[in-house]
Amino acid sequence: MPRLPLAIFSGSSNPALAQEIAANLKKKLGKIELKKFADGETYVNYLETVRGKDVYLIQSTCNPANDHLMELLIMIDAAKRAAAEKITCLIPYYGYAKQDRKANDREPITAKLVAELLQSAGADAVITMDLHADQIQGFFDIRADFLYASGPLVKYFKSKQLSNIVVVSPDVGSSRRARAYAKRLGAELAIIDKRRPKPNVSEVMHLIGSVEGKIAVVVDDEINTAGTICNAAQAVMKNGAKEVYALASHAVFAGNAIERLEKSEFKEIIVTNSIPLRKKISKVKVVSIAPMLAEAIKRTNEHGSISNLLNPSK
């Protein structure tokens, strides 16, 4: 199959990441006009031809999620109508993913709805990273590749050359992810048993495993309001941990998360640039995923294998 000419365009959610991805590919971002009409509706216009091209649209559907999602859908539609041969949505952070099942009667499953919207708009493929739950992979009927931030995050953490590490899962549901990190770091595993009395509120019930005298690393897919991860840090320090770090893929930082993190027990909070930080935080270290995402674009455009990018254990 011949390789199509490559074109990369950025939405408005994370232009710095898109620019870094393009630089890694030694390409320039495509020219696109993004603006809002006086009534708040979104306008998109490609300022260069996309006819017959392999088009990649880079957009995290982070806050404001509705605006960024709608902008992405309109970008897809505009590219489709401009005769792009193939349209791939590169979504470093996939919003609405937490509603991946019906936890209560008469609730929506928005993770599935967003997948259907992308397909209906005309996307041919999706590349995303660290979904909130793995079952969301089954919501896509178009080709979808699911990357993991564990590679860049573990590489950075290993550079600290720390020893006597224990990886901590902040809840039972995240234990599979934590186990994968523990394997890569050659560390032991501990799990926090928590309960969630209401949305965005969590309480630690038990700590399963030993953290005494060890360097604890709490891992999660995202830091939202930071309640869960800060409670986890407090729990491991109370149980005798020497220090505590955080590794998280997505820095959502909603509500008063920044204030919580600044006052937390964490020595360092390590996140990726899937979402741009709205404020500089002294404890937060940002690790770039641009090289990994650029490599994913390069390989898919050249019809190459990305299996070692998909498998977090390699």
Question: Could you walk me through the main structural features you see in this protein, from its secondary elements to its overall organization?
Answer:
This protein has helices at 15-24, 65-81, 110-121, 150-158, 175-185, 227-238, 257-263, 290-301, 307-310, and strands at residues 6-10, 32-36, 42-46, 54-58, 86-91, 125-129, 143-147, 165-169, 188-198, 201-208, 215-223, 243-251, 268-272, 284-287. The chain has 314 residues and is an alpha/beta fold. It folds into 2 domains: 6-148 and 290-310, Rossmann fold (3-Layer(aba) Sandwich); 150-287, Rossmann fold (3-Layer(aba) Sandwich). The strands form 3 sheets. Strands 10-9-8-11-12-13-14 form a 7-stranded mixed β-sheet, sandwiched between helices. Strands 1-4-5-6-7 form a 5-stranded parallel β-sheet, with helices on both faces.
List the helices and strands and how they pair.
Layout: E1 6-10, H1 15-24, E2 32-36, E3 42-46, E4 54-58, H2 65-81, E5 86-91, H3 110-121, E6 125-129, E7 143-147, H4 150-158, E8 165-169, H5 175-185, E9 188-198, E10 201-208, E11 215-223, H6 227-238, E12 243-251, H7 257-263, E13 268-272, E14 284-287, H8 290-301, H9 307-310
Parallel strand pairs: 1-4, 4-5, 5-6, 6-7, 8-9, 8-11, 11-12, 12-13, 13-14
Antiparallel strand pairs: 2-3, 9-10
Helix pairs in contact: 1-8, 2-3
Through-space gap between termini: 28 Å
CATH fold annotation of the largest domain = Rossmann fold
What share of residues is helical? Answer: 25-40%
Q: Describe the strand arrangement of the main beta sheet, using strand numbers.
A: 10-9-8-11-12-13-14
Q: With helices defined by DSSP (H or I, 4 residues minimum), what is the helix count? A: 9
Low-confidence segments, ≥5 residues, pLDDT <50?
none
Give the number of domains.
2
Summarize the biggest pleated sheet.
Answer: 7 strands, mixed
